[in-house]
Amino acid sequence: MYAKLRNYLTAFAAIAATLMAPEAMAKDKVVFQIDGNVVPFYAPLYAGVENGFFEEQDIEVEFLYAGASDILTNIAAGNVDFGFPNGDAVVAAAASGLPVKVVHTTYQRGIGALLAKSESGIETYADLKGKTVAVTSLGSPNYLQLQVGLIQAGLTIDDVKVEVVSSGAIVQTLQSDDVDAIVFSELRKYVLEAGGFKVNMILSNDFLPSFGNVVVTSAETLADNPDLVKRFTAAVTKSYQWVIDGNVDAALQISMDKYTPTWADQMPILSTAFTNTFVASVWQSPLTAERGLGAANLEAWQKNADILAEYDVIDTAPNAADFVVDPSDIK
Are residues 117 and 182 in the same domain? Predict the structure, then answer.
């Protein structure tokens, strides 16, 4: 009798496991394409994966990398599920009619900056006349920032020589004096200063209020699978909040161990950059204090679009409400 009962229980357990297996194994596999290369500045996302924050949302992430304009083209075409480009590039994409949606304004302000050695005498955009300036691509947000900065200084892009240099080499071109200035990320100032260089910096956000990296998806994905989008943005929020909550060095260590080992010797510089810039004023703002990380300021997005249109960087300013969504509004 007991043997027969045991056989029934074993059979029942096997059937139950079979029935539950598809649900247990069910997981949304998404491709997340990030702006640039594999660098420790994306440590919160790497830590989010390694800490299981995406897995908690039943999501498996594959990271790919590309330039911002390519990311947005891929999003619109459905080649990737989510992207992490710079906000200026998103505005340009929306202005050109690409069906992209910002679903998490991760960086609450732009981090683009003009960097030049102090010895160059370049202190304003007007000082760039006749100089050589490097950007990562002619479709990059930093190229848009360069155009606006020059126009506001009474110059045009024809007044400088523009060099296109990969993101992995652009800082070195300034160090070696192959160019007079670069328009890239303010975070690279820490790297240059650690190398013994005195640097002049002009923050792009001072004359072009904008946003750094933001999470985007296609209009189709948001309409057809809002639950996936909501779960994905929830995982992104948890990843960044974990870093903010005293885990800067832990996140960087995860990045060094599994994603960016060649940056290991720059841990102290990166820790300072994260604490003084990212945590202090990039990922957080008065708006996020009120509504949570990733909150969207539509007025600021609209101002960014209007400025780009005013200076003819884009033809017409798109309506921010048409391409920017607050995470809390995703149902």
Answer: yes
| Calpha distance 252→273 (Å, rounded) | 11
Distances (CA, A) of 210 to 139, 216, 295, 300, 307: 16, 15, 14, 7, 10
More confident residue, 118 or 139: 118
Look up the CATH number of the domain holding residue 143. 3.40.190.10
Interval 249-305: pLDDT, tens? 999 999 999 999 999 999 999 999 999 999 999 999 999 999 999 999 999 999 999
**Same domain, yes or no, for 84 and 166?**
no
Per-residue model confidence (pLDDT) at position 209: 86
What percent of the chain has a predicted confidence (pLDDT) above 90?
A: 81
Domain boundary among 162, 181, 206: 206
Return d(Cα 223, Cα 212) in angstroms, integer. 25
Higher pLDDT, 24 or 323: 323
Is 18 part of any domain? no
In a shared domain, residues 139 and 271: no
Residue 17 lies in a domain: no
- 260 and 288 assigned to the same domain: yes
Backbone phi and psi for residue 112, each to the nearest 5 degrees, phi listed first: -70, 150
pLDDT score, position 194 = 85
Domain with 293 in it: 24-109+211-329
